[in-house]
Structures are given as C-alpha cells and as structure tokens.
C-alpha cells in the first residue's frame, strides 16, 4: 500500500479538489511560491556572500577615485551641490545595476545544472519563478546600497538622512533590482549560453550607465544622447534617488516612479513568457 | 498511467522523435533503452511538461498534454540527467525549498523531509552543503526532492550515469523499494544494459527517434534469439549501444559524469 511518505486517499482527494482552486487561494499560493524562491536566493547568498563584496569594488572605486577627483575641478554643472553628493545617488544606482544585470548568469548556470528544468516540472506558476528571482536580486541590490551609503557616510557626503530617505532608498533599490534583473532574465532566456550572455551583458552595461544622469546631468549631453537617456530607466532611478537623498526637490518624482513601475510590470510579463525557453 | 501515441518532435530540421507509441501501466517500472541521441531524453522531457510535442498524443494519468500541463505537474516527479540539486545549499535546504513549493504545511514538511532523509539514508549529511556529497548521495537527494509531493509517477533520465558500481546499486535499491513498497510508477531512461535488465519489468528499445521493440527483457532476448540484452540490441539495431549521439549529447553525458566524480 502507498503509505508513510505517500499520501492517504483523503489527501489524494484533497489534491484533486486543489486543481480547481479559488482565485484567492491561487493568489496566496503564488505569493508563497515567490517568497520561497526569494528565500532560496537568500539562503544561497548566506552560504557564499563573496559576490556581494567583489561586485561592490567597482562602484566604490568610482566614488573614491572619480568622485573625489571631479569634486576638485568643478567641471560639471550640478545645480549647486558638491559633485560627490551629486554623483552618490548615481553610483548607488550603478552598483545595483551592475549586480542585477548579471543576475541572468545565475539562471544560465542553473539551466546547465538542470535545476531550472527540475523546478519547471513542479506545480508552481511560471511568474512566481520570475518574481522570486527578482526578490533574490533585490537582496543583492540592497547589499550594494548599504555598502555605498556607508562609504558616503565615511566620506562625509552631504546626504539628507531621515527615516523617509532611508525607506525611500530601499524601495527604489528594490524596484531597480527588479527591473534590471528581469531585463537580465529576458536576455538569459534568449541567449541561453554563458558566452553569449556575457558578451551582450558587457556591451549593455556601459551604455546604460553613461547614457543616464548618473554622473552628469542629461542637459549637458549631446541631443541624440539625451533621447537615449530619457528612455533609460536608470535615469529615472537616479533622479528619484537624487531627490530623496540630496536635493529634496520632488518635482517629477511621481511621474518617474510611475514609469518605472510600468516598465517593471512589462519586464516581468516578458520574462515570464520567455522563462520556459530555459527548459529546452 | 502514461499513454503515448505516435509522438513526433522536431528540433528545427532534426527529427528527435519519429512517431513513437507506448504505454506505461500503473505501478510498473518501465525503461527506455538506447544510445545517446536515440530520443530518450526528449521523450522524458515531453512527459515532464518541459517541452511541447510537435505532433501526437500524450496522456498522463488521464490528462492530455500539453493542454493540462499544470495539472499533470501535480502528480509527476522529475529527475533530470544533469545534477539538479543546488550545490550551494545543504541537502535539508534543498528539500525544504521543494517542500514549500509543493505546498506542504510546516508540520507535514518536517515529517516528510525526515522520512525521506531516512529512506535515502542521507542522515547527518542532510546538514552539509550538497557540493560535498558523493555522486550517489546527490542522486538520492534528487529523487527525494522529486518525491516530496507524493507523485504517482517518477520520471528519471539516466539516473545512474557516471556513478560507481556501489552507488549505482544503492540507487537501484531505492528505485525498487519505491516501486515494490509504495507502488510508484517509474519511467526511466538508460543506456546501460545491465541496468535495464536488473530494474525494468518492460523495456522499449529506442534508436534514431524510433521504438524498435517493446517487451520484457526475456521476451526481447527470445524474439531475437540472443543470449544477452546487449546482443539482442545489436541484432535489432545493427550497432552497439555505445555508438551513437552527436557532439552535444556526448558532452552532456560526460559533463554529468565528471561532476559526479
């Protein structure tokens, strides 16, 4: 008889009913599944957090070397704030961008190991995989934010510290991680091999960074680059963070936030549709 | 339990499956035997809901694929050929995540995980990172993961490729226990003759995307007049089981074998 580790008849019937679950229990399962997949990512990081530190090296150097130097020459119009303060939100968003955009690499690695295939054969909605992964990416992104903000504290950068600014930063970093990790997952689903993914990842990071308002205002860019910068989600992230952390001017914040959220939803939908490609 | 009728799968211009048909009965241990590239993995992946067939009928426990994929996932457990447990987590964590995903509540979760750890004889190792496990232990952990939601059907793709003889036997033992004591229906693929002979009640011999013959090992040997399954295979296909498979297939098998050492 099927007993012990296997289910009783009663359990089996319960499962049959489960196929026609109500919408509310479906949503509950979806949230639970996403959280579980997020938990898996967090557990992985706890066992081996090396990447969090190695990924932070580059942004730290930007702030320390580039920031400190350009503060002295005052060559970039910053609207009255010291250059290092102007660029801190830019570098903060850069550090989150860098760790998120290579997130798809983990997906390809998992695919090579058969982990993705095994997960896809489970009774778990496809979108929960994508959302769970973005949660993992958010944990990574937040770790970078902590490192950069601590460094800003040490460098005595003039930041508007408050509960609001800290919570706001956390929220925006989560959104940024979500967008760029989804973007990365889309690339991973299309590329499917490490070599191709690394190639395209390298090609994209620099333009995303330089065609944004991270280290100089959009107004000083040539016209064609301004067009790119305005379409670049990184610019929105930088502008929101700059409002919260440095300037305290919130003119376009809601618009930027709204655009960012729409972009995330679109990215999640595309990533969900492409995710099963990783199984073949 | 599983009914497959004239199943065809094309990848671009390659015909991976060229119209295969077979049934797996409830509680049966059924084997797909053939060289690399015969279409075994493709067949298992289709039944596991991972890829969509080009043509043909696939029915699992009365539900048709690909339409009812999300229902079918509730009663299949799938163990892919590559090592699919997460090496950067402990064995316990691997089981825990799967248990949560298949919707076990906290009480059932602990109970079921502990039962499976006992059944697979993982013991103290369950608290260690999986990357420190031996090949046989990883395989058993993977089978345990696939069993958390009480699947009626277990699908395994080359479950013992690359394992040493002792580990291979311990995996065989687990599979036979599952079938005999728990009445689990098992479909596995293999290119090891002795594995097919030792485990499977019935075998389908596959070659170049087609099923050459189906029957018990004894029937197949009788049918071909061969003394061993290996010779029967040569009689039926005109070549030995070791030949076959393209560059990628061979690379995949070797990669798994390497990671198991």
Brief digest:
The complex is a heterodimer of chains A (280) and B (261). With 280 residues, chain A is an all-alpha fold.
Q: How many H/I helices of chain B?
A: 10
pLDDT averaged residue by residue of chain A: 88
Radius of gyration of chain A: 21 Å
Low-confidence stretches of chain A: none
Q: Span between N and C termini of chain B? A: 35 Å
Sketch the major β-sheet of chain A.
none
Number of strands of chain A: 0
Treating each run of at least 4 consecutive H or I residues as one helix, how many helices of chain A? 12
Count of strand segments of chain B: 10
- The helix/strand series of chain A, from N terminus to C terminus, equals HHHHHHHHHHHH
Strand content of chain A: under 5%
What global shape of chain B is seen? globular
- Separation, N- and C-terminal Cα atoms of chain A: 36 Å
The helix/strand class of chain A is mainly alpha
How does the overall form of chain A come out from the CA principal axes?
globular
Computed CA radius of gyration of chain B, to the nearest angstrom: 18 Å
Describe the structure.
The complex is a heterodimer of chains A (280) and B (261). In chain A, 77% of the residues lie in helices and 0% in strands. By secondary structure, chain A is mainly alpha-helical. In chain A, α4 crosses α11 and α7 packs across α8. In chain B, strands 6-7-8-3-9-10 form a six-stranded mixed β-sheet, sandwiched between helices. The relative contact order of chain B is 0.18. The model of chain B has no long low-confidence stretch (mean pLDDT 89). Chain B is α/β, with parallel strands linked by helices and 261 residues long. Helix content of chain B is 41%, strand content 24%. Chains A and B meet through α1, α2 and α6 of A and β6, α3, α4 and α5 of B.
């Amino acid at each position: 008889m099927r007993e012990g580790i296997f289910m009783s008849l009663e359990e089996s019937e319960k499962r049959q009913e489960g196929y026609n679950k109500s919408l509310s229990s479906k949503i509950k399962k979806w949230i639970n599944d996403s959280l579980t997949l997020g938990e898996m990512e967090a557990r992985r990081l706890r066992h081996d957090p090396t990447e969090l530190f190695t990924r932070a090296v580059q942004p730290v150097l930007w702030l320390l070397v580039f920031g400190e130097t350009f503060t002295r020459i005052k060559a970039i119009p910053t609207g009255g704030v010291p250059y290092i303060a102007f660029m801190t939100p830019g570098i903060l968003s850069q550090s989150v961008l860098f760790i998120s955009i290579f997130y798809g690499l983990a997906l390809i690695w998992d695919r090579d190991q058969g982990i993705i295939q095994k997960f896809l054969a489970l009774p778990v909605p496809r979108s929960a995989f994508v959302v769970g992964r973005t949660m993992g990416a958010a944990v990574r992104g937040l770790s970078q934010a902590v490192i950069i903000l601590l460094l800003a504290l040490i460098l005595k950068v003039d930041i508007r510290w408050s509960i609001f600014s800290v919570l706001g930063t956390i929220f925006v970093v989560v959104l940024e991680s979500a967008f760029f990790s989804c973007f990365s997952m889309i690339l991973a689903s299309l590329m499917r091999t490490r070599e191709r993914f690394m190639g395209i990842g390298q090609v994209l990071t620099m333009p995303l960074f330089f065609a944004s308002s991270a280290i100089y205002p959009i107004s000083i860019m040539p016209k064609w680059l301004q067009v790119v910068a305005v379409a670049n989600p990184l610019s929105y992230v930088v502008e929101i963070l700059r409002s919260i952390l440095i300037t305290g001017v919130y003119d376009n914040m809601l618009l930027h936030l709204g655009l960012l959220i729409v972009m995330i939803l679109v990215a999640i939908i595309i990533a969900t549709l492409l995710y099963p490609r990783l199984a073949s | 339990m599983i009914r497959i009728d004239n199943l065809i799968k094309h990848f671009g211009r390659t015909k991976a499956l060229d119209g295969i048909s077979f049934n797996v009965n409830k509680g049966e241990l059924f084997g797909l035997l053939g060289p690399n590239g015969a279409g075994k993995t493709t067949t298992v992946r289709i039944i596991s809901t991972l890829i969509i067939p080009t043509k043909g009928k696939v029915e699992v426990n009365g539900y048709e694929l690909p339409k009812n994929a999300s229902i079918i996932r509730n009663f299949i457990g799938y163990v892919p050929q590559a090592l699919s447990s997460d090496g950067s987590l402990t064995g316990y964590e691997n089981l825990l995540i799967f248990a949560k995903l298949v919707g076990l509540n906290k009480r059932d979760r602990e109970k079921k995980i502990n039962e499976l750890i006992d059944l697979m004889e993982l013991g103290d190792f369950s608290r260690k990172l999986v990357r420190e496990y031996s090949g046989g232990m990883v395989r058993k952990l993977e089978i345990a993961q696939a069993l958390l939601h009480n699947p009626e059907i277990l699908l395994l793709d080359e479950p013992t490729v690359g394992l040493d003889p002792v580990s291979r036997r311990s995996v065989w033992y687990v599979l036979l226990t599952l079938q005999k004591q728990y009445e689990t229906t098992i479909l596995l693929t293999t290119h090891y003759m002795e594995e097919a002979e030792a485990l499977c009640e019935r075998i389908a011999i596959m070659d170049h995307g087609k099923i050459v013959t189906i029957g018990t090992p004894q029937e197949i040997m009788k049918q071909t007049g061969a003394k061993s399954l290996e010779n029967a295979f040569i009689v039926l296909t005109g070549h030995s089981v070791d030949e076959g498979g393209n560059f990628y297939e061979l690379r995949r098998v070797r990669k798994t074998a390497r990671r198991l050492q």
